[in-house]
Fold:
Amino acid sequence: MFIGHQVRGKAVNIDHQTAALGKIASVASGASYTVSGGLVAGDYLQFLNANYGAIGVFIGVATFAVNWYYKRQEIKILAKKS
Structure:
């Protein structure tokens, strides 16, 4: 059985099976992107797991630097007020 369909203003006959295959391809494409995104996220988490020590050291050094900077600014402000 054929159904009528408009493509760029022209009437086109599309077979029901062709339309169903288009829907299946759409679902398969969405599933493919979902699985791909999941694998990328899993790989990122594996990277974090393998490098947790280095990441912890980096965060510790960054925290120390930020605290040192703002404490120095606070001391300068208090010195100006006195």
